[in-house]
Amino acid sequence: MAAPEPTTRETPDGIPLRDGYQTLVTIAADTDISFWEVEVTPSEMDGGDPVEQTTQHNTTYNTKRPSSLIDHGPLVLTCAYDPDVRDEIADVINKETTITVTYPDGSTDAFFGYVQKFTPDALVRGTQPRASVTIIQTNWDTADSVEAGPTLTEVAGT
Q1: How far is 130 from 25, CA to CA, in rounded Å?
Q2: Does residue 104 contact residue 20 with C-beta atoms inside 8 Å?
Q3: Is 148 part of a structural domain of the chain?
Q4: If 98 and its partner were Cys, which of 25, 28, 89, 128 is the partner (CB 3.0–4.6 Å)?
Q5: For the domain that residue 146 is a member of, what is the CATH number?
Q6: How many CB atoms lie within 10 A of CB 43?
Q7: Closest to 37 measured CA to CA, from 78, 85, 76
Q8: How far apart are CA 110 and CA 148, in angstroms?
Q9: Helix, strand, coil shares of the chain as percentages rounded to 5?
């Protein structure tokens, strides 16, 4: 049995984002929806829990393997909003559509998903009214009824 061998970290390719400004979220079902992004938390990628592989034949270690599938967590954004957005959200909530995140360098990440929640914060004197919008990535193309992951479009130099 071969033991794992150390490897050396190499300089990554690409260019790191320098600032979170200006990250925008487009909902294809309403591209001019009446909210203004303040903070955007892109969806996480999660390989899932490990799959236990330990049997009665193990002698020293519990063993496990990675799951076979990838999950994407919710995209959450904090936004300023026009009260009219409540009607617009009612029209897009739970409607499967394309969601696009545009990063500060111009790269885009497009995926199938839907608006799950619109949660306004408390309205407080002296503060800008804000809300939280939660978007679920479905990875499901409803037009073709097939699994379909995100599409990342990079800009030159990344």
Answers
A1: 16
A2: yes
A3: yes
A4: 28
A5: 2.40.30
A6: 20
A7: 78
A8: 11
A9: 5, 40, 55
CA angle 27, 33, 34 (to 5 degrees): 145
Residue 116 lies in a domain: yes
Provide the pLDDT for residue 135. Answer: 98
| CA angle, residues 12, 152, 37, in degrees to nearest 5 | 100
The type of residue at 42 is P
Distance separating alpha carbons of residues 51 and 66, to the nearest angstrom: 6
Q: How many domains does the chain have?
A: 1
Any domain includes 88: yes
Is 121 part of any domain?
A: yes
Residue range(s) defining the domain that contains residue 83: 24-45+70-153
**What averages of pLDDT result for each successive group of 10 residues across the chain (158 residues)?**
90 91 98 98 97 97 96 98 96 98 97 98 98 98 96 83
User: Rounded to 5 degrees, what are φ and ψ at 79?
Assistant: -145, 155
